[in-house]
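[agent] plan:
  1. take the single chain provided in the ticket
  2. run structure prediction with default settings
  3. attach structure tokens to the ticket
  4. add a short note for the reviewer (M.T.)
[agent] executing step 1
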Amino acid sequence: MQEEPEMLTTISIPDRLYKEIQELAEGQPFNDFVREAIQAHVLHLRKGKLAQEVAEGYRAEMATSSLDPEWKSFEVEGLA
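[agent] step 2 finished; step 3 output follows
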């Protein structure tokens, strides 16, 4: 498997946070810890965005149902 190219970047974080990371990382290299934390946060943001899009889709579908009117009674069946 081919490795992904990496961008070398510089970030500034408060000393207090750096020290906390060192304590929590338990010997894990700082770069690995930060990379994993960023990946976890990106995944969290993607899931939140997807959940928002799904909710908006449901709201739009409720406002103007794409179902044939004959099926309307089945759309809410079992929700009560």
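[agent] step 4 note for reviewer: Residues 25 and 32 are 9 Å apart (CA to CA).
[agent] ticket updated
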